[in-house]
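Table S7 (text form). Paired inputs.
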Amino acid sequence: MSIEEWPASSGGGERLVIWTRALGDAEATRAFGDAAASRFRAAGGELLGQIGGTTIAAFEPLDAIEACQLVLDLLSETPASMETAASAALGEVSHPHQGAVRGDVLDRAQWFCHRAGHGELVLDDGARALVAGHFLFAPPLGEEAGQRRAHPIDRMAPTIAECRAAVARLARPPLPASHGALAEAVAAHTRATGRSVLLVRASATALLDSTLEHVARMAAPGRVLTMGPVPFGLEPLGSLRYGLTRLFPLARELDEACASLDEPLHKALADVRLGRPVPRSLVSRALSAFLAAAPSKPWIVVDPLPAIDASSARVLKDLAESGPDLLVVARIPPEGTAPEGAFGEARVELLEVSGLGGEGPRFAASILGVPDDHELAAFVASVGGNTPLGVLEAARTLVSRGDVVFGDDGFRPRQRVRPRRSSVPLQRLIAERLRDLETNAFRMLEVVALCPPGTPRPVLDRALELDGLGEDARRAATRTLEREAWITGGLIALPSAEPIRAAVLKSMAPARRVELQTFLAKASADLAGGLFAKVAAATHARAAGETDGPAAILIDAAEAARELEHRRAALKLAATAVEWSRSPEIRRRAAELARGDEGDHAEGASTSHAASERLAARWIEALKASDLELADRLIDEGIAEGAPLVTAETLRSWMALLRGDLGLARELLASTHDDGKSAPPQLDLVAAFVELHEARPRDAMARALRVLATARRGADKGAEAAALATIALCFDAIGREDDARALRQLAVDAAMAARTLRSKNA
């Protein structure tokens, strides 16, 4: 009987056609065909025909995964004495006349089945696309010109879901040899008597938290309080609030830990954890007593140091100067510097943490549980590059996509591997894992990425609830994210590494980000325990596009902060409120805060031009004195007093450059606006310096030349001198030292002319 004479199925349309065949003893092959037909019908497939050991059935495309799994199970149960194979093809199945079944898909299914090896199930391109998120495939067949490609499912490999679950079987990263000096220093400082500060110059890929976990298992610190960044550094005591929440996810845990403290000190810490305004000196005393009560020397971990809020930084300084015996471990970015006077007169030790160097294979082998000389360790290390997080994320990516699989003997390469000559960028590795993350888990990870580290779990859950994730969905998403190493923290969900947070935010569509910020703003506002905690809600609302409401919260918090010894935080809040809103009332209140009295200040008492000049002059004097903290404060004061925002943002960009934070400088440049007026030359020069640091000297030169042309048209000798000096640096970068020397001399001449002109005008 030919295929065209077989009875038609009950319907037409695009179907997944399964074709199985068996060769061997006639009775055995007939039994195989009967078993296949029976299973196909039981699974909801439509039998298109059967001849001996050959069986053809059609399934709905939505049932492709179940149909293919059924065939794989059938093939695996076949006796070794019988040769079997199967194929799956996607296409139109029709029966135009007399009930005959027709379709090119039948020819393809038959052709692919005859190409399959013993025990193999091969798929055409269409069928493969239906199940690509579930099965792993062996190299395709039929790559020769003019032949269709056949995709065999890898029978020796687990499913992709099983691969992703195997990420949890990777071992904790070991202590890198390059971190040995850091580990010894932390342990020595913990054993020693007295207060000490250990600055660690390292990138976010260095896995500092992992190193500290290793040391903590031996040194056994009495407590570990971790402080991290808060949005825009705005919330007074925000870094400390989130740190206390990370240490004590439940309020009763803090109450139990503070049971021995005097009631005012106990209440002060409880209020800080809730985000209520508390005097700074009281917070310092309370935290000092709390740490002194620890059974052994406590740690305060600050990561990264430049990103914590001003009030938490001041409390940290108080502790370093007059607190109990403790160790402060603070990370600063590779090109950054610690804020001047951050720890008063306390003794500070600085250590630099380098990459893995030649220990990458050993590091990878420890994660995979294979010998150091195993080819798999060398391969993973070559993919991950020279950083601990890079190698760790390479292992996670290769396991999750099935290049490295877990079996009875541990991890093994699914196919032959060879070390790469160049590594894969970390962000690309993370993005590849993100692409296949289950939908609800990804939605949850987006919210986690938008939350400051240490955000209370009720806020996170409330935002997810507003996004449509019920309790069961949240629980399942949490299990997935923890199993696949996306988040840590238990009751406080944190991205397992800062680059993961950055990759998630980068992948987020702008509209989706605004939507989630709206949910977080509402959740934070609903659950805020105090005025300072409402600043977090204000930052989310501002990110969602609101202006006046968030600015009003900031100015209220600024006034409360000023009365409670948080003057630096008050200035920053007031300046940001002015940046967010043009309300005359907010400007008036901000000016009062900046000037430090309650008297009347007539609107427009000083022109914006005068305020701009005054700000620039005072800022330059602060830089000459190497007082970056004062320079920061002057910018906030200038904004509050009415200096143009473009001037302030230009100076902020310079501050970011001076601290080595190119990413922040780039963000500030991108966000700077000046009400449609042309940007000042200083702003273009900041951008030129950023381009120079990014190894783009020709772009930087083009920008500096534009500044030079503008300066000469306006007879601005100061700007001309700065532009010439910048162009000289560009010539240095491209190896034209003679031209650079000549331009520096011209810059000196222009600077002298500018000074002479200023003297005459004075």
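Next pair, protein 2 of 2.
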Amino acid sequence: MFAGGEEKTFWRSTRLFIWFFSSPPALSRHSLRRRRNPLIFFQTLFKYFYFLMQTAIQNMNSEKKKLFPCLTSNFIVCGIFSLMILLYYPLGIARAAAYGSPIRNWSALEGFTWEIIGYFALAMTVLKFRQLFDFLKKHIIIAVGAALYIIILLMQQIFIFPSFYNHGAGLSYMALIMTGFLYAKEWKKLLLPLLWIFFAASIAMNIHNAVYDSNGAGLTGNWNWSSTLTLISGSSLFFLLRKKLPAFERKWGIYFTVFSVILLIYLYFAGHFPKGTIGSGLIALGLLFWCYLDYFFSRRARVILLGAAIIIAGFTAVRQKDFIAGQLKNDTRLYLWENGLRVIVENPLLGCEYGRYMTVSADKMAPEYFLTGHAAVIHNHPHNEFLFHLANFGIGGTVLILLMLYTLVKAIRLFERDRNFFNGYFLFIYTVLLIHSMVDVTLMHWPCNILFYLAVGALIPMMDEDKLPENQNTPAYLKGIAIILALSGCYLFFMNFMSSMYYRMGLNLGKNYAKRLEVTRKSFSYRPTYKTVNDIAVLCNSPEESLLLMLSMKNLTGIENYSHNNLITANLLMQLKMPEQALKYYEKEQQCFPLSVRNLYFFRNALLQLKKRDEAIGVEKMIFEIIKIKNLEKRHINILIKSQEYDLNSNRIPSNLLTPKSK
């Protein structure tokens, strides 16, 4: 593997690398000085990464190729990347392995998150840049679109908010698509085992939910997204049966459909009726069935059948319009989509930048949203992936959408032509995730987001006309760029991991506020996030320090509106005898929560303190109007003032707290 003394250096650095991660106290500066010279340590650590990358890049020798024909350098790189996907939330897989045993705040500990994994995907792309360049020369439109998308990301860093994490999140979309494209052969071997792992984890969580009668949040943190993950990963088990089934190649479509329908029936009973999963699954199976209809009907006949189905569906919708209107009346998605459109209109070219959607959309929500009973303090996604891309990246989001639709059309044409079972399965999971993402946040959460965008890229080279050229030797300068990108990802991973570790420790401390403040400060020192800024400001005993943190949130994180930060800022200003300045933040809070009685109560007090009696009376009238809108009485005002949760969703107030109406 190595020549001369390189092997000795490699194993020495490997031992040092293991020592580094197995001795947490040694991460401090003083302990490093005691045990190792820091310069020697980091020099050896760099050599370790260098030799590890060299091993992954160069092909295995001929003897090992005979023993392990699949163990190429590309396969090793994709294998390492698969481990990163599994370690998105390190405690997530551990929680599933323990059959869902309670691990407090497991999702607070972050590993290779969406913001970080983009740098590693881009490093993998750079290693095969020549093949990518050859493909883009044949597809100029795709090349121009990708270039436009990269330019938009760079302009966001210059004109909106500079952040390596936000930039990495934007890179992840295009980088994952290119990684799936360039390593399609490897993903055809690795994707199925990866899905089997996720299916086993999902089933383990479902067993826990059934035994302990929990809410069915599953591996992804939500029963609906978890059901979709179970569907796409569970259907992958079908490929374990292909050697056992007679006439598999000829009748696999029938077998696969039956297998998937059984899974949907299971999810119907085990997943609290996940409408998004069942609907998207049936549409995906309908698409596969549509492709199979050419055995019996011509293309023209199929179009006539599709038109008839649309007419019947439209006629049924018109006849049931009252029922449909009743179902949609309290559905928050309509308001979330409308809110997303407002963000798009205000940011048509550059978008608002990934990670900032919550702050630019907070003050645009329609008041009716807060009467649905499902209002949230933050809304970081419009529950539609296309709207999300357009809002985040402007015209760059259009590039992503067109690429997703282009892949879908090409995949359908390919499947109609060759009936290949693996291409059909890719088309199935692609369609399930795409359809579900139109009404939910499925593609914002692990692992569906990574699996989907890898599938987008992996479907492209499966078309005969788009086959990639043979592997070419990677020049040394490209290897160097790839190493720099990978090391950048490692640095961001370390800083984010340490920050999330301390943040989770703080959450687990609960009401031990003094200790919780101490560890949250440590989390802030590694990476200041809007969550750590908000928590420190709330926990801190110094109103001056709290106010300084809240006022600096935008400069530190790019977030201006997060949860009730404006109300906290206004109350801190009141505490410091600055009521005039507080009025601005009470107004901002009311823009974000237009039906908030609690905020108006504090707002009125500030106006009275400033002796603005007429304005205070106007605010008091607004309070009484909102109380009527919420179907409450004046005597219930104190309940809303004391509880932010009940003020946000008044229909969640327990009946025992509501006094009977006066006669």
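DSSP finds 33 helices and no strands in the chain.
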